[in-house]
Amino acid sequence: MISVRACRCLSNVILSSCVLMFALATAIAAQDSPPKARVAPVVDDYYGTQVTDPYRWMEASDNAELKAWMHAQSDHTRAALDRIPGRATLLKRIRELDQSTSEVFGITPMGERYFYFRTVPGEAVPKVFVREGLKGPERLLVDPTRMKLAAGHAEVGWFEPSKDGKYLAYGVAPGGAEWGEMQIVSVDNGKTLKERVTRIWAGAGSTASWLPGNRSLTYLRFPELKPGQPPQEKQLRPVVHVHTLGTRANGDGDPAIFGFGVNPDIAVPEAATSVVTLTPGSDYAIAGFSTVSIDWDGLYVAPISTLSGPTTPWKKLLNTEDQVNALGQLAVRGSELYLLSHRDASRFKVLRVDLKAADLSKATVVVPQSTLVIEAIGAAADGLYIQDLNGGLNELRRLAYAEGSEAKPVALPFQGAIRFTATSPSGQGALLRMRSWNRSNEILYVDADAGAVSNTGWQPPASVDFSGIEAREVMAVSYDGTRVPLSIVLKKGAALDGSHPTLIGSYGAYGPVGTAKPSFDSKALAWLERGGILAIAHPRGGGEFGEEWHLGGMKQTKLNTVFDTIACADYLVEQKYTSPTKLAISGASAGGISVGGAITWRPDLFAAAIDHAGVTDTLRFETSANGPSNIPEFGSVTTEEGFRALHAMSSYAHVRDGRAYPAVLLETGFNDPRVDSWVIGKMAARLQAATSSGKPVLLRVDFDSGHFGGTKEQTDALTADEWTFLLWQFGDPEFQPGR
Predict the structure, then answer these.
(1) What are phi and psi of 339, to 5 degrees?
(2) Is the overall model pTM greater than 0.85, yes or no?
(3) Which residues of the chain are under the pLDDT cut of 70?
(4) Does residue 402 fall inside a structural domain?
(5) CA distance 661 to 609
(6) What is the pLDDT of residues 710-735, one digit of tens each?
(7) Are residue 444 and residue 567 in the same domain, yes or no?
(8) What residue numbers bound the domain in which 430 lies?
């Protein structure tokens, strides 16, 4: 018999157990729910249209609250993904595949020396090497892994050799921030000079050029951000300076030569990027400025002998209306300048201009427009090399300098993408970096005299077997009847039964720079060997079919990019490659417009989505650090027409409460200088608060990276997290989380 006191004790134990169980259940529920963001609505009136922004507070500079919330989000995401048992095995396989080869890129010939980046298996970031002659030995020149920075790992984004090949300038940035300092190394002895020129762009793309004598060089520098200035001021009003070796170690006091406010007769916009380039064998300097647009907004010429700081007598060669491409390289041979123009030529033509006269109206068309899209040109001693795009695949032509010559095709060893064409006006032939969806990178040498293309052997083939993988190039039909290219990579013989886990990627912006050409990624085998499919949409906005294709997906026509992407996803379902429960979409940067638009217009079509540093809040993007320079591509809210376009393409503005959205993994590097972290943070908070599907919306934050993935370890972990998330949402039994 149990006493009353015993019953009371037992009752207390049961009550305590219930309280403990409730607390545990609450803790588990809290663990399964991401940290909530503070809601503080701000209502803007745009030309009579009111738009509510619930998370405007995230945009404040030096935002401690945002950083704390992102840390909490990161911890929540990390805990969610680490509970998935298949991730560890998947990451191991990804790392194994990523170490299958080294990779050579960014080749720059200078005299008898060749400079390039190489990724080394087992090493965190690419290093800079120099090779003595085409068949000579290579040696390590710049090793970022040995650099000590105040914060984050070091990365080298660009380099520029002196005209005699004896010095190499390069940009160093911490933690993927792409802002950093310029350093210089002596190529002969490998010793780094004392120069540490600050406030330079250290991301991909050189803005430096060496002067004759090889003791001075031009470079682009940004103004110092003063306390209280908004963040976008950091990327405004850059100026080209001249630095002389051994002087002004940090660059302060280096004379200005071109750029914003330097010459009162040359109106360079504050958001424009300026460069001054000098080519071996030419007596002329070329100065130019442009925004993120593909065209030069202004191009000027001056004899090198007259360079004298702000008083340099620059002669105007062209402006925006001339529609001359700024991405296809300035090809200079002595006093001849070769340019790409899409004026009255949507697929581009090649012009030749005499620098002595510097008069574009007297330019000669040396390569007329054809069915091919001309992507880039490069001047070598034996001829002008022309890189073409034909239906997503690259071709190559060579134009001899003799008057009246026609561009002749160069036979390539396989169909694929030329990722880089390296030429030197003082050297014969060209070097190509070429690959396909299922063939690893090769560095090829074009010997014009022998009429042959051969593999240099600089990069060994990847030690992975892609023989069982095929690529298919098909056409989807968009809402308005436009045929949109779609690339599909899958196992040979895969049954079209709708069962395959499928990831479709989309970008579609900036014309030529946004062209989704064939690429090779050894890590992809970890997805493909599981029966997965990788698809790549080629929507309007990119450069697949020239400038007309670009104009079909920008500003007022930007929704075409979204609808073309949806059409490609529909094709995959209709042709039974996959089904909506097995289909995910991904995009990065400007591709965030495609991803965000796809899931807000057609949430029923996708099981999951990955948004990496996506431009999702287009209404507010121009207030970000990199926003002003992107106005030519997306538009501005300062005009009603611009607002209407930006509002239509803003996925953040079109998230609706109570709608069943797919599972979404949003990603940002906290040091991102291109798409501020608050952009993706606002989208994550909005989706988390709005979705009714019960599917996870996770925010992944890397506090030691920027717009791109960072070190190999970081990129491998990122890929493993993405595919783990997708396989979890696709219901793969190996990827269902445990408690």
Answers:
(1) -130, 155
(2) yes
(3) 1-31, 328, 739
(4) yes
(5) 10
(6) 888 999 999 999 999 999 999 999 99
(7) no
(8) 370-461
